[in-house]
């Protein structure tokens, strides 16, 4: 099936001379959730802005369901909803009027039945006659999504949807996004929160200094680059580990008891048997063992470091 978004060799150099994007090529499949991760200034917002026609690329192309975003701007843009980073709302307007207005901006005929569906999906229907200033922060964020969906787009861009919101609200937003995916909406989100990508994304793209370092199925990425950490708890604390153990790349915790050992889950030998034999050989009694998978955060930091 043809991807819903095709990005080819996309570049952007701002008038200031900043290369915000360099040679980005990417296909986004209909119905997927793609999380774009990257440090500040990586080029994520520039990518979104180009795709939404707010910024002109200096090289390459983006097409949305076959419509070029420059040559065929209107058709491409009508397929996209954009939830910006900042809350930009008319605080004295009601929820219903706000979404009606957004729909009108796209030249779509009024369709209150459709807007009702959107507001219900976002748990805002009961608030349809409330003025925006009367809403909680979480509701305001949901109104931003309702506005972005008002013209019935098939693709939704969420730029840092949960920046600066508390944990409960973040979870609430995740639920909303999952619900939209079920409706068949393609979702591209940028985030600084790796937990968010880990929780939500089907695929993860990593951008750094304007380059797309990789795009990979999230589970594959975690599996391929993930390491496991074995935590060994010693029966008696030690001031330092015996010298022969130092070469194994172990971390001794401040308590002198907890030893952490990273190992590659794909290596033929994990090194655990040798490690435990060394512990026994040096008279270190082990009280407990546990293992954990490294998080996407660690995968991300390693990739950005390795590819820098
Ligand atoms: N209008 C502009 N004029 C000149 N430079 C810009 C402009 N917008 C962005 N930049 C620069 O382009 C680079 C990429 O910025 P962009 O906002 O796309 O990154 P980002 O990944 O979205 O960052 P953040 O996570 O901080 O939002 C940065 O160096 C930024 O300073």
Describe the structure.
α3 (95-105) packs parallel to α5 (137-149). This protein has helices at 44-51, 73-77, 95-105, 112-121, 137-149, 167-182, 194-200, 218-225, 243-246, 272-281, 296-307, and strands spanning 5-13, 19-28, 33-37, 59-64, 67-68, 80-83, 155-159, 186-191, 203-208, 211-217, 227-234, 250-252, 258-264, 286-293. With 308 residues, it is an alpha/beta fold. It has 2 domains: 5-223, P-loop containing nucleotide triphosphate hydrolases (Rossmann fold); 227-307, Alpha-Beta Plaits, CATH 3.30.70. A 6-stranded mixed β-sheet has the order 6-7-8-3-9-10, with helices on both faces. It has a 4-stranded antiparallel β-sheet with strand order 2-1-4-5. Strands 12-13-11-14 form a 4-stranded antiparallel β-sheet. The longest helix has 16 residues, at 167-182. The mean pLDDT is 88. The protein is elongated and about 80 Å long. The chain binds adenosine-5'-triphosphate. Residues 5-234 form the ABC transporter domain. InterPro entries: AAA+_ATPase, ABC_transporter-like_ATP-bd, ABC_transporter-like_CS, ABC_transporter_ATP-binding, P-loop_NTPase.
